[in-house]
Ig-like domain-containing protein
Amino acid sequence: LTPKPELTSDPAGAALTGNTVTLTCRMDLSTGWDFYWYKHTPNSETKKTETNSYRVKIDSVSDGGQYWCRAGRGKTVYYTQYSDALPKAVVTVRPDERVFRGETVTLRCDIKWRGDAKWTYRWEIEGTNYQYKNSVSQMSTQEWNISSVDHIHSGKYTCTGQMGTQSSQRSDAVTLTVS
């Protein structure tokens, strides 16, 4: 059975331009392995490291995206399986991203990852109201119901998930506009 490493990131979630993210390829194997890092697709150009950590400086938007890792050793290289990519959260809004005052809005954070994983969800809001500027809310439920929305709820909503040591990538922002 070919081993399969687990990919984690620190800090968790999406990184902002200018930040550095450390990716770790975790495996329970003996020493002597080299680690191979792939960006965007598992068949892309690789970076090789002798340690199971890889630092990525996010200089531009193109440095973001999906990353994978695998390990290899030997003259004729024997490779492990590819890790799963870091899972990415996706936010959906019902009934719509553009709503009227007084309506009920439901935001939902979905993360596709190994069946029925138990995530803790973290919501971030970049709002137009000073109270909601860079506000953070941590909830264990993946749906967030806002009854009777008002102008103060207008803003950009993102979510990330945490499950033990595994973190998702931050979702793309969804803009809620209340008229």
In short: DSSP finds no helices and 16 strands in the chain. The mean pLDDT is 81. The radius of gyration is 19 Å. The longest strand covers residues 155-163.
